[in-house]
Design a protein that fits this description.
Blueprint (H helix, E strand, L loop, with lengths): L3 E5 L5 H6 L9 E5 L2 H9 L5 E8 L3 E2 L1 H8 L5 E9 L2 E5 L10 E4 L4 H11 L4 E4 L3 H9 L5 E4 L3 H4 L3 E7 L6 E8 L11 E8 L7 H10 L5 E8 L7 E8 L5 H13 L2 E9 L17 H15 L4
């Protein structure tokens, strides 16, 4: 397989900046792609070793294009995650004043992060979505739009000027990016890990989501993301994307996944991988019987009963 990482391009995206924080990129060819699906498909087709894409931001939650790309198609697996603080600049062609701006462009995920600023400073500007923030900058350079919300670092690359900087509606806004490859054995647990799965219910019934959540709750497994995505089989038909604290090798996490698989139509394992914030999972307040030792002891008791050694 090519020693290359595909990523949401073109050059100059926040995705590229986040990707370059991974040490192994020094030995990989970084290939910009026109969209998240194109990056994921490059991995499925064997054209890239991995894809690096945004999956969640702290303002709007899960990024649906990426979630849908992992839900459907040939299975892929998450190996790493990166958190990047996000602040936008308003990029324009040299000589453009704020009063000249009639149209602005950026990736759709950027709009909720600059909505209030836009309303206060450019209330009459028309918003046009682009495939990425860097692509919006390229379109401004070509004269398609008057301004783009992108990283300030993209200005020089596209021959633009940063008319305003430090734009964000929410303080400390972050975007989470993931490195996605073909399925393989998960990396060894670090003690500060995350496990991602997609779950399809057998049928739609009252309390169905509660039943899924109880598989985690009764084992003291904390959830970090829960998002529903349509299955494409009609209104009201959804699957659920979960991020849970812990690693699949943790007994309580493995037991929760076992319960999900037993009770659900399908469960797609998306990987167990190190948390970018390096925060170890804790059961707080401690729930009786939710430690790995408790699960090992219980399994040993069952085995002894089966052997007549109780």
């Amino acid at each position: 397989m090519p020693a290359s990482y595909a990523y949401l391009g073109p050059e100059g995206t926040f995705t590229e900046v986040a990707l370059r924080t991974l040490p192994e990129t020094a030995t990989r060819e970084l290939v910009p792609m026109v969209s998240v699906p194109a990056a994921l498909d490059a991995v499925r087709a064997g054209e890239a070793e991995a894809a690096f894409v945004p999956i969640e931001n702290s303002v709007e939650g899960g990024i649906t294009t990426t979630l849908d790309g992992l839900v459907a198609g040939e299975p892929l697996m998450i190996y790493r995650e990166v958190l990047l603080s996000i602040s936008f600049a308003l990029l324009v062609r040299p000589g453009t004043a704020l009063s000249d701006i009639k149209s602005v462009s950026a990736h759709p995920a950027a709009q909720p992060q600059v909505r209030n600023w836009l309303k206060g400073h450019l209330p009459d500007a028309v918003w046009e979505s682009a495939a990425s923030n860097a692509d919006a900058a390229r379109l401004v350079r070509e004269g398609r739009y008057d301004a783009a919300f992108a990283g300030e670092f993209a200005a020089a690359r596209y021959g633009l000027t940063a008319l305003e900087t430090g734009i964000h509606d929410a303080e400390n806004a972050q975007t989470r990016f993931v490195l996605v490859g073909r399925p393989a054995r998960p990396a060894a647990p670090t003690g500060a890990d995350k496990t991602s799965v997609v779950v399809w219910q057998r049928d739609d019934h009252p309390g169905g989501l509660r039943d899924l959540l109880s598989e985690f709750a009764t084992r003291g497994v904390n959830l970090m993301l829960l998002q529903s995505r349509p299955t494409g089989e009609g209104i009201g038909n959804y699957c659920f994307c979960f991020d849970a604290e812990g690693h699949i090798s943790d007994r309580r996490v493995a037991d929760a996944l076992t319960g999900l698989r037993r009770a659900s139509l399908e469960v797609r394992f998306l990987g167990s991988y190190p948390r970018a914030d390096r925060m170890a999972a804790e059961v707080s307040p401690p729930l009786p019987g939710t430690s790995d030792a408790a699960f090992v002891a219980a399994a040993d008791w069952v085995a002894r009963c089966q052997d007549g050694r109780f």
